[in-house]
């Protein structure tokens, strides 16, 4: 079985996991932009049961950006590594930029495009949603989708 | 005036105006720092940048030198991990991660850089120039002449 591995910039924190659970999205919300310094965050859901920290667990710091949403980063180099959502404890959401193993799957959608950076134009072909997509339109594993209010007509 | 800050809001800054360049860097270190496909780095003159709060909460990490100096360095908020501005070096201008900005910087990205290191899951589909290390070096040398 394929084993995925990832690490932070300084290499102090290393993780591995066996599989990615379902599609992933580029999130353009202002929190994801501030956490990354980029135009969007790219997070894949991984079953918590086979996500393992193989080095540097003691160096992890965590910031709770909203109740139950914990963003983990390396305290030595600042690299964002994964987050955990209290409402979806069975999954860990791993930040793709930290992944060292080959992975070629493109994102299924762009979400929270209503909060998108004015300087970034979305041209990739994936679908776009102003906030969370309705679960029947696109289920995003490991997200708090369905636990927050989606504005009426939010799906495009 | 353009303001910006980290995710937790402890580190805040303001900028009179951005001068560019505005580059989307796909190198492996920038991908690690952002956790995303690239870092969006926008140039500002040192004289047009001011801290508003939280400077004492900034940690710095300098990566091992790969080729010639300067070494790759990242500054981040120790509370939330956001990559924050790092105006420490000499020089007229430096770069800020555009994701931190609260307001429209009024500039748009000029180019993708270090595209030879691009994440295989991310496709560049816009019309911006795509520069690898050598072509970026050539561009920088030409602009210094």
Task: Give the structure's gist in a few sentences.
Chain A is mostly beta strands.
Q: Calculate the terminal CA-CA distance of chain A, rounded to whole Å.
A: 38 Å
| Run of helices and strands of chain B | EEEHEEEEEEEH
What percentage of residues of chain B falls in helices of 4 or more residues?
Answer: 10-25%
Give the mean pLDDT of chain A: 89
| Alpha-beta content class of chain A | mainly beta
* Discrete helix count of chain A: 1
The biggest sheet of chain A amounts to: 8 strands, mixed
Written as H for each helix and E for each strand, in order along the chain, the element string of chain A is EEEHEEEEEEEE
Shape of chain B: globular
Largest interface (CB < 8 Å): A-B, 47 and 47 residues
Helix content of chain A: under 10%
Q: Taking all residues together, what is the mean pLDDT of chain B? A: 95
How would you sum up the major sheet of chain B?
5 strands, mixed
What does this protein structure show overall?
The complex is a heterodimer of chains A (156) and B (145). Helix content of chain A is 4%, strand content 33%. Chain A has 156 residues and is mainly β. In chain A, strands 6-7-8-9-4-3-10-11 form an eight-stranded mixed beta sheet. A three-stranded antiparallel beta sheet of chain A has the order 1-2-5, with no helix packed on it. Mean pLDDT of chain A is 89; it is low at 147-156. With 145 residues, chain B is an alpha+beta fold. In chain B, 13% of the residues lie in helices and 30% in strands. Chain B contains two helices and ten strands. Chain B has a five-stranded mixed beta sheet. Chain B is globular, with a radius of gyration of 15 Å. The N and C termini of chain B lie far apart (31 Å).
